[in-house]
Fold this protein.
Amino acid sequence: MDKPETHRLFFGLEIPDLVKQRLVSIQQPVAGARWQRPDQLHLTLVFLGSVARQRLPDVCDAARNLPVEQFDLTVCGLGCFGRPDFPKNLWAGVQPADTLAELHEVLNQRLCMPGFEQEKRPFCPHITLSRFKGQRGSVAELLEFQERQPVGTFSVDGIALFESTQGAYGSVYQIIERFPLAGNPERLCR
């Protein structure tokens, strides 16, 4: 019997090019850092993992007509997972976190159906800038220098369903479909 075709999926936010350029400009030589390319920068809302092709309509239906109004998102400050002297990931912070948490929760509730496991870790909205492997240099100075530094603000008027595939130079993200938030003119025209 053939194994069903699956896709590695997540819901997330696209980052505008200007903000991506500013985030990439933060990059500095740090031992073990694998910096994200501009086309890899995004904010994950809900990670779904491997999803069978036939479940794609269910996934898309869960994101339609979300009852969350469009909002402005500010990217500012840096943080890391792990200790600053031995980081796992370096990330940019975002505000307002409560609106993102609401969006995350609405999506999670709608995806509460057979075949979809809920993420166990608490939701911590961020934009991953670098991943670390092997010997890791300290990011303490970078964190201190960039503390609360604003990177940019942009309007969030929708979310996207991304597919992640492994490429020769890291993950490649492709948007499968976009879903407008409440108050978005695209949504009102339908």
